[in-house]
Amino acid sequence: MRVIKSIQSLQRLIQKAKRSGESIGFVPTMGALHQGHQSLIRCCRRENKITVLSIFVNPQQFGPHEDFLRYPRPGRLDKMLAEKEKVDIIFTPTEKTMYPDGYQTTVIVGDRAQGMCGRFRPGHFQGVATVVIKLLHIVMPDRLYLGEKDAQQVAVLRQVVRDLNFPVTIRVCPTVREKDGLAMSSRNRYLSAIERNEAAVLYHALQEARFHIRQGMRNAGTILRRIRSRIQRQSSATIDYIVCVDRATLKPLVTVHGKVMLALAVRFGRTRLIDNILVNVP
Ligand code: AMP
Description:
This protein is an alpha/beta fold. It contains ten helices and nine strands. Helix 6 (124-139) packs across helix 7 (151-163) and helix 9 packs antiparallel against helix 10 (220-232).
């Protein structure tokens, strides 16, 4: 496994691989790797000759009062996990490497970045899109691996890749969960024991809603109220949003039909968690 910090060194390696006709898969992350990341890496390895993993805590996607400074950065453990998973190249640029003095460009993203997390984290998806575009230019992958857990990120990046003509295929991997259903996240480690216990409600409430939809419930308002009331019973939970949207466009639905996504963001104490599930409604 090669650990690379400089853009030029990475580009040299990529060009060499491309000349030999080797396919390149890319898994962008912010590190603090867990089984969710691991599943993306495994999927990437199955489908590509070369797997590139980036670890970069991107300051541009954090708001001024968010957790950028305390975001976990267990560098050595991450490298060990990547090595165990047989990643070929880890790219770990510094902030100065990605945003040198005088850096000015940011990408403006459209509709899909406005609702849901976009409402509570202004500028977040702009930061995500900017760093991912930079990374795509550097890595030039054939395939880009993203997790379904960050469904709005997937929708925004699909739009960006299409609009800016990136020759890359986006592969979306299912959400990996703890035994009690909590979606794995680098932020779960912030949770106190009580918050951690209560956080399992997110998946249970979403699953219950899926059950009701399968039983014939079609009114989005009623479905969302049920999810809300179940989550509100947890003492440490504060709801940012719960929505029922079209999976591709993220437009809110009044009556559930087609490919539906139920998505939410809830804070447990100071820790903000997101989750979603998909339901096909014939
Ligand atoms: P992050 O390091 O949190 O920015 O995540 C990097 C990538 O891993 C993103 O594409 C995430 O959607 C994906 N990811 C994070 N958590 C999970 C999970 N529990 N299951 C599957 N993918 C995940």
